[in-house]
């Protein structure tokens, strides 16, 4: 298992090869290749192929490579997971994470990793909590899988769902839900 500093993570749209190449020279500890919000609907498949190609060309790097896939309740999310696992990223961010989606991803990885000759448990997970249900399930989510190496809180989607403005006070409230 690789150990990475995670002081800074750089989000890079998966559909921009030039930015992906440039990200290697920047002083971030890790790169998050984004297949979700940073990519338009018409570019989703291209972005997935682009990130897969980029990851397959990497032999070694001191940087942590993380891929944010699309939500699993979409066609793109399932296809992202099936393709990206083959390239063995260090971690995958699961957007709109709720207990059910996390269990699904964990079960899929338990099959996909051995099928791709990847050591079981190698690919780690970072749930992205963006729904009220995800906040309410956060402790169950974090206890559910040994693959989890961190958690992100998606404030924009969460506050939009609630119809409130995103403020430090509101975000602090959600962070207090983690025991």
UniProtKB/TrEMBL annotation:
The cofactors named for this UniProt entry are: Mg(2+)
Matching entries from InterPro entries are given as: Aldolase/citrate-lyase_domain, Pyrv/PenolPyrv_kinase-like_dom, Pyrv_kinase-like_dom_sf
The alphabetized UniProt keywords are:
Lyase, Magnesium, Metal-binding
Q: Which residues form the HpcH/HpaI aldolase/citrate lyase domain?
A: 7-169
Q: Name one GO molecular function term.
A: magnesium ion binding
GO BP terms, alphabetized: oxaloacetate metabolic process
Stored PANTHER family = HPCH_HPAI ALDOLASE_CITRATE LYASE DOMAIN-CONTAINING PROTEIN, LYASE BETA SUBUNIT, PUTATIVE (AFU_ORTHOLOGUE AFUA_4G13030)-RELATED
Q: What protein name does the entry list?
A: Aldolase/citrate lyase family protein
Q: Which organism is it from?
A: Staphylococcus equorum
Lineage of source species:
Bacteria, Bacillati, Bacillota, Bacilli, Bacillales
């Amino acid at each position: 298992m690789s150990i990475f500093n995670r002081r800074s993570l750089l989000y890079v749209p998966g559909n921009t090869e030039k930015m992906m190449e440039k990200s290697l020279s920047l002083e971030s500890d890790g790169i998050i290749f984004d297949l979700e919000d940073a990519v338009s609907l018409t570019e989703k498949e291209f972005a997935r192929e682009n990130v897969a190609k980029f990851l397959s060309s990497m032999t070694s790097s001191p940087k942590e490579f993380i891929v944010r896939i699309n939500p699993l309740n979409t066609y793109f999310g399932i296809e992202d997971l099936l393709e990206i696992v083959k390239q063995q990223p260090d971690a995958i961010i699961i957007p709109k994470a709720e207990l059910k989606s996390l269990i699904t991803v964990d079960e899929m990885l338990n099959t996909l990793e051995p099928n791709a000759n990847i050591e079981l448990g190698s690919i780690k997970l970072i749930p992205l909590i963006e729904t009220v249900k995800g906040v309410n399930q956060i402790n169950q989510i974090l206890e559910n899988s040994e693959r989890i190496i961190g958690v992100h809180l998606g404030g924009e989607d969460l506050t939009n769902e609630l119809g409130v403005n995103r403020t430090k006070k509101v975000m602090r409230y959600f962070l207090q839900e983690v025991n």
